[in-house]
């Protein structure tokens, strides 16, 4: 049954692909279907690309919501195009070809898909099923003797936080103030997401916004306290509505080690019930099958808790193997500082001794006798430990360990029991891990598609740096710093810093500026950088000593330094990824976590993919900036640095280059003294743009000055310039040029001798408002060898104006209309009595208003006016 429908049409241009992705993402987010957003965005991106880029037609995207899922339809108007179908064994084109890739993705990702043809259009559709979300449950546990109850060292505080429908905090009790340090007035109205330290892994798990929309939810996450540290909490969410129907969520929060206050007892499945009826006492009998099969974090957390209970231990932990099986990554623990250890990595082969490999069960009677044997348990107070491998079909997939504070607690019998339980749970863990990796892969693909689109949309260096940081924070890391390297002889420079908490940015920047930047090593992949963590710890120590009025080891009281909050924000794992473009290291992307936090391997691999794309975008921005700077410098060299003051004559020049400043050549102008009382002026237009046109422009401007100062008259100057242009051979270009000589007279007038070689004719405005051409047209330069040019004399009386322009003014267009000579003449007739500057400005304003689109050609305007005599 269809419950909602949304549709949009996108034009056949490249930017429509990004717009279509945003439309689908916003629609599904508004419907409350975050689980299928990434898959839908990836498929829509491919199908709309096929329509608007490859087929070249408009694309209509329609989202249809039904009870069981979402259907997305992408239609184009190119039905005669062949339907690409992948045939096994066929090598032509391959899977990497452009055509048909969207359909291959549909077959791999969608639950159902198909293609429908009509006489006028082709429609590709796909359906995505929605994941089942269990509703809230009610459960109870048996009465327990006092000695079996959980131990709480202090008064148990339960924070009660109520979240309104928009995700903002509406209520905050005293226990919340005591637990997290924020008074109610400081957090009311803020989104809970600002305080929640949720694992921001693309495409995996449930986000805080989604969790708040569920009818009931339980689980662990972190809350950032007022001091910047993350406080692990266990939360129970209940969705309610008031008498007006407005929904809100009531959140009960306790410290994670006091989770028994809120945690609901596990319910047995049907198979579990039968096991319990048989009298089984194995905790894993009740556990297997209880969690949702794709909830990896919940599965792992319950596994370590049951393992600890089974062996009556004080702590337990579970590690998962990386893809290459060389390292183990901490994914769940209980009774240990889990925030500190989460995603920390240890080698599979730790040494050559009896207990050196995680591939075999091991029992340590007393860790104090073999320091460092289990790095995960260092400084935790644990003395004895038993570890067993998790294997699937003989392949190592993880390791499970249980530890106790007392020595010699475990032996071979406990190892066998734990190994038996690990063997039973290994397949479920591996299945959930593969499901998480698949969701991460799809989310990563969507993330990289949008990142590439954003990076390709700018050639500005500063904007590229900002995009790099904004894409990584908070999706991949808590904070980010970008270092850039100008050239091989330069030191890395801190160019951009971003933290997910804006209040931490200045402190973070100050801390990083005081330590040496990372070495620009071109080796691909992420490497750990310890300098920020060490600096943060030193800063925290100095701050503590200063607050107590104590001296450091040198006997001095430390001066001001970074705050404890800043130190906590930088105190976790920090990694550096090189930005390599065109076989050169152009910078480093630095990602960091807060105190005692680590990166997971999949996030580092995603960051590496992003760094490669970002490096190329940053280098492209650098090359574009260099090219623009060179072009602008060359353009400035082709124009006079300043205009001389001409006695008795007002002169104004306006020059407007078309485009974004990345082209040189084209129009030029000049005004220079020839000899005492005489001035030369010129305005010209070289055919074309680019270096060849710039060469002719430079030749013309400098040759005019040189020949005029040698005493040659106007025709002789232009004839010699024509010969010089023709001598350029294949590099020569046509040149239209208006050249003249100006002599101010003692009676207040001015005499001009002009030659107009193929250029728009100069216009003379008299005081009575009449406008007339001030010269006759003659052949342009750079075409014929033998030119017979002549000059014409024009006298400007007081109040007269001479207007000279390039064809960028007269050929200004709006559709089929063109300003032309008549339009320019009409504008000039309205300029009687204006100064030369006002005349030039009015002409420019008229040209700009003639058409809505930006000018496509350079424009130069030269206005000369003889002012009236002052009586």
TrEMBL record:
It comes from Streptomyces luteosporeus. InterPro entries: Bact_Sigma-Reg, GAF, GAF-like_dom_sf, HATPase_C_sf, HATPase_dom, PAS, PAS-like_dom_sf, PAS_fold. The keyword Plastid does not apply. This is SpoIIE family protein phosphatase. It comes from the Bacteria. Residues 265-278 have a biased composition (Polar residues). Gene3D superfamilies: 3.30.450.40, Histidine kinase-like ATPase, C-terminal domain (3.30.565.10), PAS domain (3.30.450.20), PPM-type phosphatase domain (3.60.40.10). Residues 263-288 are annotated as: Disordered. It holds the Pfam family GAF_3. Keywords: Hydrolase. SMART domains: GAF, PP2C_SIG. Residues 160-190 form the PAS domain.
